[in-house]
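MODEL INPUT / OUTPUT PAIR
PAIR INDEX: 1
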Amino acid sequence: MAYSSAIALCGGDMFYHGTNNWVSYLPLALTLFIIFVLIRTFKGTRTYLALSTAFIAASFILAAHQLWLPAHFYDLGTVLLFMAIWVNSNFFHVIETIKQKIVAKPKHA
């Protein structure tokens, strides 16, 4: 669900640059939903890291929504939300797998 919400945020400026109606608040609601999902799937230290990343992302999205920051901060916030979700799910496993493949010595026949 968190990934689906983050993908929905990729609409970018069609959400927040048009008019200030209820649709413009959809990215903020989806961001809060992602933070809720991260809290709900608590996994210790990595959730704290994911939540801190998600809160930074939420501040970028909010600031771009309110036009306090340029539009590219919205995109950066969306990327950070993807990273937060990935950190809370299997990021460290992927890094460990890559590390093992690089360090593994090739077998000679």
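PAIR INDEX: 2
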Amino acid sequence: MKVEYRDKTRLKKVGKKIQKANFTSMEHAAATLRKIAINSIRRGTMKDNIKQHAKAGKSPKTWKFTRYRLKKDILYSVRTNYFTGRTEGIVYARPEKAVYRMHEEGGSQTVTKTILESSYRNRRSRDGSNYTYKPLSERSKKERSKIIKYYKKMRNRLRKRKISFRATYPARPFLEPALKKIIPRLPKIWKTIINKEIRNL
């Protein structure tokens, strides 16, 4: 005679512990991947008022005038898929900003930029007359006053105008290299956390 006994209550506990360990290990892996990606991005510098971009194939740079937004826009989330029961982790740069995909994969896109310009037209085009250059020192006091007032108004009255142009980005990946670095560490992360949860049964 053969008797078989199963402690279903304990099996449920083990299942819950494993599910919890999967979630914790995935969260830890996603957070680590995010940190590696952020650390690979350097702050950009200027030389002769020209931005010094990263070389093709290297991680892109982030800039002070954007408040180093790229580092802040790398996020992660972990969830359990209720259809498959699997735990899924996602690390991403904000998807609504297409420029990050351009950096990761390379390509081109239409960019819209806002510029400031004077609302005044050039005096020559406005008056329709032919001017010859004459230093202020050779002009009358009344002329000098008019010219100074005109350019003062021109400096103070600026308007915004949007311009669009096609920008091409060489591939400067930052998420894929981070993933390649962390892949060998994933089994160890999962093993450490699963052992910790099982010991607490």
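PAIR 2 NOTE: The longest strand covers residues 107-118.
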